[in-house]
Amino acid sequence: MAFQTSKDTKYNQLVLSDITVIKELLTFRGSIDDTNFNQGACATNSLKMNTDVISLFADLDELIKKSLNEEQIKLLSYITKDYSNYTIAKILGIPVKTIGSRFNTICLKIKQENDRQWRKVTYINKLRLKTKICSKCREFLPATDEFFSLNNSSKDLFHSQCKKCKK
Length: 167
Ligand SMILES: [Zn+2]
Fold this sequence. Notes:
Keywords: Transcription, Transcription regulation
Number of helices: 8
Largest sheet: 2 strands, antiparallel
Distance between the termini: 31 Å
Radius of gyration: 19 Å
Number of domains: 2
Bound molecules: zinc ion
GO molecular function: DNA binding
Shape: globular
């Protein structure tokens, strides 16, 4: 978001660390898109809310890209479009009764990625911990065993690839 400040980011990270909020946002996204996004400039209040909601969804999209696999993204897009569980199961060729737990897994993965990003920023900017660049994704990450698994044969004790890439 062009107008996003660091304050907004903190607020979004706080909001998106709650799994219930993530679930609600994803479930009701379709109706929010229709009723609020397209109304444009009306009352100041709703415009303010729109900006907040839009920046929240922008952050949510980033987390979705970073944490979910293709199948999960597909499933999520059908849930957002308000397809019934039966329809989704038919399209994806999966049992209907697994959809609830698959959606829970999706929400949990988004929450974990949000919290991971939050700790990453805090460790680097506030605690000023040493960083290490992952040899695969080229992301600067705190040099801690949360982000890199330990490797006693390497000089700095960490593997060269981050935990996410090494999976
Ligand atoms: Zn990596």
